[in-house]
Design a protein that fits this description.
The protein is an alpha/beta fold and 326 residues long. The protein has 10 helices and 11 strands.
């Protein structure tokens, strides 16, 4: 049975909560507030097969467990699979000590939480690794499964906090960059028309959108003046999207998801493979002076922080457009 596109109406400068579809986790994009429940990933590294199997069985219920029998193999797994929440590594392994292996993971995966298992008193190695921030905890062999589970659970919580902090810092940087770009474009552009394409490009880059239109409006109607970003001519799509009438009537942000399925109202987006789009009104004294449309070819979601970033950017855009019009 064909799905029907979901239309969401969101107050223009209030929370932009949505269930499916907007923004991914690079730059300003992040997880949905209703994101699918996914087990954290953990990498266990030990050259002894029995220990490796025991670690796997200990954590398989609560984590996606990756296994490696050496530091070299573990580095190859990370290169292919990407970041994991936690690494548990034996210290004494052939070719490469656990601390040496973990130190090699720090530059690319600074947020990953690292735990060392050791049956020896490698004090110097452990102290150096802990002081360098490469090791979160060390556990002596033989370990108590319940104690190790508690340590790993705390490590998972630590990882989530670190990722949240990193995402917030990245978001703040991207937001500041976008506001700066809008101001710079407005200052350097001789006319309003000249500024529209660079502004559309700046929004697309900040929100990692595949396409963007910034189109001016007057007397509650779209004008022919617009700026675009992306490989496609989206002017017709903005005219045809069913979200436009809703936006003009409510002056609220509009979100369309599930546009990949067949539906007459979504045909203009689906032919280009658009999975999600958002239309935001640029308001001045409760009048729509422009419409910003962002489109993505993959399902996306807004986090609360990115919602605020969009609100602030649109407000800044309002001032820039007014200055260019004067």
């Amino acid at each position: 049975m064909a799905l029907i596109p979901v239309y969401c109406v969101i107050p223009a400068w209030q929370t932009l909560s949505m269930n499916s579809g907007l923004m991914s986790s690079s730059s300003l994009m992040a997880k949905s507030l209703v994101a699918k429940t996914v087990k954290p990933r953990i990498l266990v590294v030990d050259d002894e097969p029995d220990n490796l199997d025991l670690l796997y069985r200990t954590f398989r219920r609560d984590f996606q467990v990756l296994r490696a029998a050496s530091g070299k193999e573990a580095l190859a797994i990370l290169a292919e699979e990407g970041e994991v929440a936690i690494i548990i590594s034996d210290q004494r392994m052939p070719e490469m000590k656990g601390t040496e292996f973990l130190s090699k993971t720090v530059p690319q995966f600074p947020d990953t939480v690292r735990i060392i298992l050791t049956g020896f008193t490698d004090v110097e190695d452990l102290v150096e690794a802990i002081n360098a921030g490469q090791v979160y905890r060390y556990i002596t062999k033989p370990w108590d499964p319940d104690e190790l589970k508690q340590v790993v659970q705390r490590a998972a919580e630590t990882y989530e906090l670190l990722k949240q902090r990193t995402d917030e810092m990245l978001q703040a940087h991207t937001q500041a960059l976008l506001l700066s770009q809008i101001s710079e474009i407005a200052e350097e552009s001789a006319t309003l028309e000249i500024a529209l394409n660079p502004i559309a490009a700046a929004f697309a880059e900040a929100f990692k959108a595949d396409h963007c239109i910034l189109r001016l409006a007057a007397d509650e109607q779209l004008t022919a003046t617009l700026g675009t970003f992306g490989p496609l001519d989206l002017q017709a799509e903005l005219d045809q999207t069913p979200l436009l009438a809703r936006l003009m009537a409510t002056k609220q942000v509009q979100v369309l998801t599930d546009t990949s399925v067949g539906n007459a109202g979504a045909a203009s987006a689906s032919h280009a493979g658009i999975a999600a789009q958002v239309l935001a009104p640029v308001l001045y004294r409760e009048q729509v002076i422009a419409v910003l449309m962002l489109q993505w070819k993959t399902d996306q979601v807004f986090s609360e922080g990115q919602q605020e970033a969009l609100r602030l950017a649109i407000r800044h855009l309002t001032l820039a457009l007014l200055c260019l019009q004067s």
